[in-house]
Amino acid sequence: MADxxxxxYEEEFVQIQxxxxxxxxxxxxxxxxxxxxxxxLIATSGDYEHLDTTSLASLTAGNIAxxxxxxxxxxxxxxxxxxxxxxxxxxxxxxxxQRVILVVIFDERSSLGLVRLRVRKANEHLNDIFESLLRxxxxxxxxxxxxxxxxDEDIDNLFND
Length: 161
What we know:
Elements: H1 10-27, E1 31-36, E2 41-46, H2 53-73, E3 81-85, E4 90-96, E5 100-106, H3 112-138, H4 152-160
Antiparallel strand pairs: 1-2, 1-5, 3-4, 4-5
């Protein structure tokens, strides 16, 4: 079954942003962002003004797709965690709930061990948030969705005018 389209409600967006903000502090990271697997930026935290976040989000999703292909060749489902080490900055990438990608950029003020520890905790919180969001999308009556009261007849009438 195909994944339903990701719909973001304000309540979950605020919760996701809080997790990102906490992860920045707890991991002593420079930037944290969350991207869907299509490359759309969902949330950011930290010092990201100097980054081309749109390109970085797109490239991250492409990276996940490419390593997903390698994983399949090795008869793995996916590589849920990736790490890229640079001279000055490092990137830790984690797939969350098989739906979104958590990216943490950090430098020498932090360590891979600390980042991995804090990402593990953030991953748990994000999984809970996205599971709740998925339930809302699948059952619009949950959470007083504005779409709950729209019927097929309403949609038909809209296009018949």
